[in-house]
Specification:
The chain is mainly β. It has one domain (about 60-350): Methylamine Dehydrogenase, Chain H, CATH 2.130.10. It has strands spanning about 60-65, 70-75, 80-85, 95-100, 110, 140, 150-155, 165-170, 180-185, 190, 200-205, 210-215, 225-230, 235, 245-250, 260-265, 270-275, 275-280, 285-290, 300-305, 310-315, 325-330, 335-340, 345-350. The strands form 6 sheets. The protein has a 4-stranded antiparallel sheet with strand order 1-24-23-22, with no helix packed on it. A hairpin with a 5-residue loop joins strand 20 and strand 21. The two termini are about 35 Å apart.
């Protein structure tokens, strides 16, 4: 972490328009994919980026939550009452994770660690603590029912991310030893499907096999390729894990590059063409900021995955002060946003009403 203001040790602000957060991809050993495993190829289904006819779009006002020079990595608490973030305050207060109420107030220290475990889970398959797991366990995920836990293990030696191998293991939370489920190459465990009957992972299951987003059942049936694509990145499960969003940028067919969303049950995919930064709001609501080369302002859109419709939530005036380092997060109900301003590096709140 680079600090830039002597004596205040503030986190450096990297002001980027809308960079996409790249997903770090691990991998593991080498069981073969059963030949009977069905494959599902993505067929581009484009949704409009804006209404064809002019519509009245509400322009919510932004209000500051923190002082200037603070903060990074804002995350909503699971109940939507607080914003957690990383800060290194001046004086004797330590570097750590702090929390502030959504209506403002003095930040409170939550943890003097800035690891992912210091934050609440961002979906129903979040990290867990208090379980007796191996020291090598990484990316720990609790099932929706809380009765099983999955994690990855693998080499920590430097290697090309697309060749990295990791084993996925699953165990009962109360009893029973871990069982190795499979090995992934150039991918990672994303979390549990909403029904708790399968895991969602990215990568390849064998050398030279198809790459993409997989549903891996726990009953021994073959893994199912939800969406095929080279090097899927930034995979993110919806709040109830009924959907998974991800990004493709290395497809031979240009029309397949962009943001994709597919049900974790295996139903059809939907897409947002082009570059975009995206976050989950409520279940079935994907919020995104499209990158438009002919515009310098930022707009916020909503893709309703139930109806397939797209609408502008904030048109051309989103994120006053600019968006720093792609630092923004949607509330669990999808009606509020918090973001880090590129102008002053403080956190700002946007209230979008009914969402």
């Amino acid at each position: 972490m680079t600090m830039t203001i002597p004596g205040r040790r503030r986190l450096r602000v990297c002001a980027l328009a809308v960079p996409l957060a790249a997903l770090a991809i691990p991998g593991c050993a080498d069981p073969r994919l059963p030949p009977s495993a069905p494959l599902t190829a993505l067929t581009p289904t484009f949704t409009p980026l804006a209404p064809l006819e002019p519509t009245s779009v509400p322009q919510p006002s932004a209000r500051p939550l923190t002082e200037s020079g603070c903060c990074a990595r804002p995350v909503w608490s699971e109940d939507g009452s607080r914003i957690l973030f990383v800060d290194d305050p001046p004086g004797d207060d330590p570097l750590g994770v702090y929390a502030v109420a959504v209506d403002g107030g003095d930040p409170q220290l939550v943890s003097d660690s800035v690891s992912e475990d210091a934050f609440p889970s961002s979906n129903a398959s979040g990290a867990v603590s208090g379980l007796d797991l191996p020291d090598a366990a990484r990316n720990v995920r609790l099932s929706p029912q809380g009765d099983r836990v999955a994690w990855t293990e693998g080499s920590t030696e430097p290697v090309n991310v697309d060749l990295r191998r990791r084993s996925i293991l699953v165990s009962q939370t109360q009893s029973g030893g871990p069982g190795r489920l499979l090995t992934i190459i150039g991918g990672d465990l994303i979390g549990w499907a909403g029904d708790g009957l399968a895991l969602i992972a990215t990568g390849r299951l064998s050398e030279g096999g198809p790459s993409g987003v997989w549903r891996v059942p726990l009953d021994g049936s073959p893994p199912f390729l939800l969406a095929q694509g080279e090097r899927p990145r930034s995979a993110s499960l919806s709040p109830s894990a009924g959907w998974v969003a991800f990004y493709l940028a290395f497809e031979e067919e240009p029309s397949r590059n962009g943001v994709w969303v597919v049900r974790t049950s295996g139903d059809g995919a939907q897409s947002i063409p082009g570059l975009a930064s995206y976050r989950w709001g409520r279940e079935g609501q994907l919020l995104y900021i499209p990158y438009l080369s002919d515009r310098t302002d930022l707009s916020l859109y909503e893709l309703d995955l139930i109806t397939g419709s797209t609408r502008a939530l904030i048109d051309g005036a989103a994120f006053p002060g600019g968006l720093a380092s792609n630092d923004w997060a949607a509330s669990p109900t999808g009606d509020r946003l918090v973001y880090r301003s590129a102008a002053d590096s403080r956190l700002w709140m946007l209230d979008m009403g009914g969402g």
